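Justification of resources, computational component.

The compute hours requested in this renewal are based largely on the per-chain cost of generating structure records like the one below. Each record pairs the submitted sequence with a full structure-token output. That output is archived, and it is also reused by downstream analysis tasks.
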Amino acid sequence: MDFIKTVTNKGVVCILFKEQKYRFLREMASGNVSLRCTKKKCSARIEMDKPMTAIVRVNGEHLHDIVNDHDAQCHILRNNRKRKATENITDRPSKIMRHELCAAENTAMVSDDIENI
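The structure output for this chain reads:
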């Protein structure tokens, strides 16, 4: 099962799986990690192994629309840019943004997206 592991705006691990975002919920007694959907009223959950390398189980159905690929790319670029800005405080924001856009794969960003990131 393919998934992308990212970090949220608050620095918490976030998983993008089947066009949905999941956040850390708790560590279970079995040692696995439980994650839930980031939408407040959605009860969908996934269970991953402790190092978060494989999805063990998927529970529940989503009660909302999927997160499209474009929004996921914006989320990843935004968080990477914020992390780089705090690590390299001497670099110009435009340099950090240019570097992140060059490093990103298959970006379909337009100028409006870049202004929002």
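The mean pLDDT is 78. The radius of gyration is 16 Å.
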